[in-house]
Structures are given as structure tokens and as C-alpha cells.
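Comment thread on ticket #2218

A.B. wrote:
> Attaching the input chain for the structure job we discussed in standup.
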Amino acid sequence: MLLVIQNLEVVYSDVIWVLKGVSMEVPEKGMVCLLGSNGAGKSTTLKAISGVLGLEWGEITGGVIEFEGRRINSCKPQEIAEMGIIQCFEGRRLFRHLTTEENLRMGGYLLTSNAEVRLRLDMVYHYFPRLAQLRSRVSGYLSGGEQQMMVIGRALMARPKIMLLDEPSLGLAPLMVKEILKVIQKINQEEQVAILLVEQNTKAALAITNYGFVVENGRTVLDGDSEKLKANEDIKEFYLGLTQIGERKSFRDTKFYKRRKRWLA
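C.D. wrote:
> Ran it. Output below, let me know if you need it in another format.
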């Protein structure tokens, strides 16, 4: 396994217990989704992996995060990035005063030569041809979809072994969501980059990933192959809004959730 998380616990500001036992795995070259409702702990899990919790008064208080067999709980964000763990944060964070290509080049700060930077830029433009047309455009004036392409491209510039993608479809039109998720899938398949995808669009996430984990109230409560999760009645009712006979169903109408046992003792 490339990334292994065992019973991860996180506290914010010494009092807010957010993660209470998240466990999951991402294999080399794998594509895994992390599902859950708002406030379940999905984004916090990604921030714990990338080491940026301290910037938000968060702290890992229990559990283990291992990357390529190495425990990284106490590593600094820059050390984790150098290992090949690159996160795309929710909300399309970018340097709005810089051009598209300048933003992309910022992602390649670990590259050692101009030739390598050029190769990585060409690769990004291969996956996102629209960015090649906008390379001189100030990024703050790009559309939401174009900005999302750019931040994914910037992550690619850093030679990732795994990309942590937090809500890449947020606020985008359905056609743009479909396009971006298709490119993410191609990157995984063609560049052999592992993907850990946090996504509220459960149907879309399960359509492009191989395996999924469900987090509820800071704990991993369910996991399985994406196809099996799509057929799971709990997933249908909670996240796809369907009853057993295919009718729409509100979360408030669901009285029972078949919780699985804690993934690791």
C-alpha cells in the first residue's frame, strides 16, 4: 500500500474532536474516494495527510499515517510535499495576481531544471488544452472550471506520487464536472499517479474510482469496491437519495444506518 491510515484522531484548538478513528488505505497507482456528509471529517483527513493541520490550529492526537512504509505524522508540510504527496484544496486556491502559466510554474518549484519544467508544462497542457490558450491570462479572471483545471495542473507540476483532491467539482456546471473528472481518471491511468478523491458528488466519485471509504462523525464506517458501494442500500439512501425501489428519499426519513465495525482494532 502506498498510503495507510490507522485509527486517525484529530483535535482542533485542543477542544474540538473532529476525527475519532479514521482508517483507510490507498494502493500504489490506485484511485480511491472518501465519501461522507458535510462535517464528517473528509477535508480534515486530507489536511492531516498533507501536514497542514497546524496552520489551522489542528493536531493529530492518535493513530498513524504511513506513506511508502514511513510514518509521517510529525513531518512538516514541505517534507511531505517532497515525498510526493500533493493536495488540491477545496475552493480552488491560487495566486490570483499571477498568470496561468506562472501559477503552474509555482507548482514546479521542486523541479531541478528548466527542461524538466518545460516537460511538465507540456504534460499539463496535454491534459488541459484550454490552459495552453490561457497561459498569459491573469488567473483571477479565469472561470471556475478553468481555475480548477489550473490547480490540478499545478499539482501535476510537482511530480506527485499521490494527489489529494478535495471537492474538485464544487460549484461547477455538470458538463465541466464530467470533463474534469474524466481528466483526473486519465491522469491516474496514464501517469500512474494515485488519487485520493474527496467528493460530495457520490455518484460521480464512485463512477471513476475503484474503491471507496465512508466517513461519518469522524469515523470510518463503511468501505468496499466502488461497484459494491453503489449497490449498498445505505449508500443509496444516504448519499444517492434512493430507496430500495428507486424512489427519492430524504436523509431525515432514514432511521437506521448499518454501521460496520471499526476497520482496525
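A.B. wrote:
> Thanks. Noting for the ticket: The longest strand covers residues 16-26.
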